[in-house]
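This part of the workshop introduces the protein records we will be handling. To make this concrete, we reproduce a full record directly below:
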Amino acid sequence: MGYQLTKNEADALFELLKSQYVIFGPVLKVGEGTFSDIDVIRYDQVDSLDDIVWDQKSDYSFKETLNPINETLFYFTEDETTVPKGPQKERLVFMRACDFHALKRLDQIYLNNGFSDSYYARMRDKTKFALMGCEKSCQTGFCVSMGTNKTDEYDIYFKPSEDSVLVDAKNADLAALLRGEQVDVTPDFVEENFETVTLPKNLSKESFTDEIWKEYGERCINCGRCNFACPTCTCFTMQDIFYTDNPRVGERRRVWASCQVDGYDEIAGKIQFRKTKADKLRFKVMHKIHDFPKRFGYPMCVGCGRCDAICPEYISYQTLVNRLAKEEQENEK
């Protein structure tokens, strides 16, 4: 059982939540896209339910609320280091079903990958998650094919309409805040996408040398936007910032990076593991559908479709994967 709240009751609930949590959700940023006069939807702190974009998928994912684009790991002076404090207040993040599955992938990398990343862990421990339902499929998503279109692991669920808001809470602390008319509340989940994606199950060695990588690599410009929009990409680099007043004092930052950008895989002696655009693209795709599932038992991709939507060269990840699966089937005949 959940609750049907009037707009005033929902606003009062949100104000109560704001007193206990810093709340994040997908927000429309007018004119802040990559190009002039282009809007973008990305995560930011919200002050009301009306601030949240409910009817469109965000261009960038929720992951920057847990793993900031720039994060100071420690400050250093000439003789000591200081780790900055983590979040002091609880946080509540609004996101969709596919992103809940992406959260599982982030947890796998940062918490269950042979070590626990303390910076991610302290942010994760302070965060609860609100589910936003999907009444219809987004244009580029293929969550149904990936089995990520549904979840029951949310802490609270909101569904606003013109004159009321449906709410259901699984978390006991949040459920204790709910008041109003009790009704049956069932989250909206997508049952069918515009596109269907079939993952290749038994990639051969030939798949790694396929001409498809060269074909798509010639179109890729190594901008890395697909990685930055992806909710499961976790690559980063380190930057040491030295202050002008005293060059022996500064801070070390962890900064998002991309396996698609030139120089990311360069080591001492200017040796690069992946020299061509085709090599970089192959690494990204194979990591999502081959290496990650081989290690953890499930694909890294959750089918959100953000990479297809944001690519300036209109490279379709889902078309590429479908072609790999088709070629695999033809080779098995």
Q: What stands out?
A: The chain has a mean pLDDT of 94. The longest helix spans residues 277-296. The CA atoms of residues 113 and 179 lie 41 Å apart.
